[in-house]
């Protein structure tokens, strides 16, 4: 019966698993960081655009422009809520693979937990954190894009009204 190698010699099954676990853990951790960075940039963008739209709302503008601008503010507001949910910390203490759990342990319990390889558990937990972040980021981006289209429509309404 053929068994997979279980030593840590270069090129063995164990070394492939070890490297794949290291790579996967680093990749998921990096993706969470990138998602949070993107969300932060979009939060700043949304805030600036909302401020600009609200600041121009007191001007005498065509009704079509005000409607499009109002819809743009609404889309940006919903996008902002989604982005805030993206950066909201997701703390789980019962998974035994992350710092919220470790915070409940004493030194001896932590040392006992560290005696095993929990990278697969950490990859699972971090992936469960990363997936909703990416989904929320995608929805927020689509709403921000819709707001940009509405703003362009509002500007065109001002131009058409001015030319009429």
Please indicate the percent range of residues in DSSP E strands (runs of 2 or more). under 5%
The average pLDDT is: 87
What is the overall number of helices? 5
Rg for CA atoms: 25 Å
* SSE arrangement, N to C: HHHHH
Shape: elongated
Relative helix content: over 70%
Any idea how many domains? 1
Spatial separation of the terminal alpha carbons: 86 Å
Global structural class: mainly alpha
Keywords: Antiviral defense, Cell membrane, Membrane, Nucleotide-binding, Plasmid, Transmembrane, Transmembrane helix
Organism: Streptomyces violaceusniger (strain Tu 4113)
Subcellular location: Cell membrane
InterPro entries: PycTM_dom (IPR043760)
Provide an overview of this structure.
The chain has 164 residues and is mostly helical. It has one domain. Helix 2 runs antiparallel to helix 5. The longest helix is centred in the last third of the chain and has 45 residues. The N terminus is likely disordered. InterPro entries: PycTM_dom. It comes from Streptomyces violaceusniger (strain Tu 4113). GO terms for molecular function: nucleotide binding.
Key phrases:
Mobile element transfer protein SpdB; nucleotide-binding; transmembrane; 164 residues; mainly alpha; antiviral defense
How do the helices and strands line up, and which of them pair or pack?
Elements: H1 13-55, H2 63-87, H3 99-102, H4 107-113, H5 119-163
Helix pairs in contact: 1-2, 1-5, 2-5
Short description:
The chain is mainly alpha-helical and about 160 residues long.
């Amino acid at each position: 019966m053929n068994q997979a190698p279980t030593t840590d010699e270069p090129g063995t099954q164990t070394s492939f698993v070890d490297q794949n676990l290291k790579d996967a853990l680093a990749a998921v951790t990096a993706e969470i960081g990138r998602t949070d960075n993107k969300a932060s940039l979009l939060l700043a963008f949304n805030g600036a655009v909302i401020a600009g739209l609200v600041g121009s709302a007191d001007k005498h503008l065509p009704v079509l422009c005000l409607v499009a601008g109002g819809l743009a503010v609404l889309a940006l507001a919903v996008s902002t809520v989604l982005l805030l949910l993206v950066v909201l910390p997701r703390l789980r203490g019962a998974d035994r693979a992350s710092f919220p759990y470790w915070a409940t342990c004493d030194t001896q319990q932590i040392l006992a937990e560290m005696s095993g390889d929990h990278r697969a558990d950490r990859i699972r937990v971090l992936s469960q954190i990363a997936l909703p972040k990416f989904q929320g980021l995608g929805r927020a981006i689509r709403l921000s894009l819709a707001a940009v289209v509405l703003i362009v429509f509002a500007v065109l309404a001002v131009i058409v009204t001015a030319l009429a």
